[in-house]
Specification:
2 domains, three-stranded mixed β-sheet, Rossmann fold, 298 residues, 14 helices, alpha/beta, six-stranded parallel β-sheet, N-(1-d-carboxylethyl)-l-norvaline Dehydrogenase, domain 2
Length: 298
Amino acid sequence: MAQNIEKPSAPIGVIGNGLMGMACARRLADAGYRISGYDVDPAKSAAVAALGGSAATSVAEIARNCRTVVIAVFNTDQVDASIEELLAALPADAPALTAICVSTCDPDRIEALARRLPTNRLRYIEMPVSGTSEQAAQGVALGLVGGDPAAADAVRDVLDALCPRRHHLGAAGNGGRAKLAINLILGINRAAMAEGLVFAERMGLDPGAFLKVAKDSAAYSQIMDIKGDKMIAGDFTPHGKIAQTLKDFNLMLELAQRLKQQLPLTTTYTDIVEGNMKHGEAELDNAAVIQEIRRRVR
């Protein structure tokens, strides 16, 4: 018989209430947790309140009122800033706060951040998520955990609510390293599918019928299920934005340069996404790579 787990009296904070932050907020609310959201855009925090939570007016308010915080901001600089603000506002007599970061970040910087944090004040767990925001909201995305196993175990119930499927990859930084390598494969698969759809279309094949055949072929990948119909329909409602994709791929190239490793397919895909950006498509779903591929005619 399943145990009824008593939920903590303090709300769980969610810093960053964009696509992934809202997916996390929905997961927590559905699991019965009280939530408090903060975003630099008050309208996004109001969306957390609409789930039955509350809208915080600052990171400091989150630090004062919450003992567990989910960080879902855009990049590493914003993660650093959020952690510093949490530490600065944490009451001196408060028990250690646990921060669970689901953002995709520079793993070397996250490793350094985790090492310098006073663990008696703030325990840091990274858990970037492999999957779209929609998959995260449905609970089928994969969590890539890095950090102290004891700290992760202490908030196991929260991690279960966020990502029932997850792997612990060791020290902080390793979750981000795995996420970037996975995103590299995903992005190139997206581009390959988009290019194949455009090629089939140019040859006179019906793209919808072709996609069904492709799914039944040796070329099949999960990306066909997730992004194929969106590409064909031109439905670019974002579940993962072009701007986020470019941020991640630039991170990959920066890391590869440090490692003295060429990533030729990553370089090509980055060039394609930069084309999307130049055409004002930053906020569209990353399925919009098909738009840029269609534009590349001789």
